[in-house]
Amino acid sequence: MARVLIAAVFVPSPPLLVPELNGLAADETDELRAAALTAVSEIADCADWTVVGTGPAPARVTPTASGSFRGYGADVRAELGPEATGDADPGLPLPALIAGWLRDRVAPAVRADVHVVPADAARDECTALGRRLRAGLDEGETPRGLLVIADGAATLTAKAPGAFDARAEAVETDLTAALAAGDPPALTSLDPDHCAEIVLDGRAAWQVLAGAFGAAPSAVKIAYSGAPYGVGYHVGTWRP
C-alpha cells in the first residue's frame, strides 16, 4: 500500500482570519493569516483534504457544500470543493467555513471532507478516529492532506473569550511544546476534563491528530504560536 498522506497542517479556527470580519483591525491578524495561508499551501497540490475540527456536536460536511460567514458579520463565501452547489449556508460548522475559506484562496481544485468532532469527545474516541482517517488517507495513490483546525486554551488573559484561568498557561505551554516536538503521546495525554475547564476545546482535534500519526512525524515546522486575543493559536506542519 502506498503512503499518500503528504502532510498534516494545523491552523486555528477564529473567524478573524477573514479580513472582511475585522474591519479596521484586519492588520492586527496579518501575521497569523499569512502563516495559515502559507502552511495550507503546502498541501495545495493534493487532490483531497481530510479536515478535522471541533464543535458542540458531531457533523460531516462534504466537498459539495458551500457556506458563508454571514453569521459572523460578513457575507464571505467559503466552498468545500470545485463541485460545490447551491446557496451558501451560513449555518455550516466553523471548521468547515475556515477550511473552505483557506481552500478557496490557495487550493481551489481541492475537495475538502470535513469531520467535526464534539469538543467533549472521549480521548480514546478521538485517537481511534485519527487512526481510521489515517488508514483512509493512506489508501490508493492519490496525494492527500490532513488539515486540523483547532485552537489552544481560550482563558489565557482577562480579555480572553473564556476570561482568565491561571491553570491555562501551563497546559498551553505543554500543547505548544508537543506540537513543536512532534509528540503524539503528549497530545494524547491532554486531560479532557481539565481542558474543558480551561476552554481548550481544540483538545479533541489535537488528539485526532495524535491518533493519525501514532509515531513522531519525520519533520515538523511551526510557523506561528501566539495568543493575541488570549486564545492559543498555532500554525504548523507535520510530515509523516
Write a brief caption for the model.
By secondary structure, the protein is of the alpha/beta class. 32% of the residues lie in helices and 22% in strands. The longest helix has 15 residues.
Number of helices: 7
List the secondary-structure elements in sequence, H or E: EHEEEEHEHEHHHHEE
Mean pLDDT value? 95
Terminal Cα separation, in Å?
Answer: 15 Å
Tertiary shape: globular
- Proportion of β residues? 15-25%
CATH topology: Protocatechuate 4,5-dioxygenase, Chain B
Instruction: Strand order, main sheet: write it out.
Output: 3-6-2-7-1-9-8
Sheet having the most strands? 7 strands, mixed
Under CATH at level 1, the class stands as Alpha Beta
What ranges have pLDDT less than 50 throughout 5 or more consecutive residues?
none
The SS-based structural class is alpha/beta
Tell me the radius of gyration: 16 Å
What is the fourth-level CATH superfamily?
A: LigB-like
Overall number of structural domains: 1
Helix content: 25-40%
Can you count the beta strands?
A: 9
CATH architecture: 3-Layer(aba) Sandwich
Features:
7 helices; seven-stranded mixed β-sheet; Protocatechuate 4,5-dioxygenase, Chain B; alpha/beta; two-stranded antiparallel sheet; about 240 residues
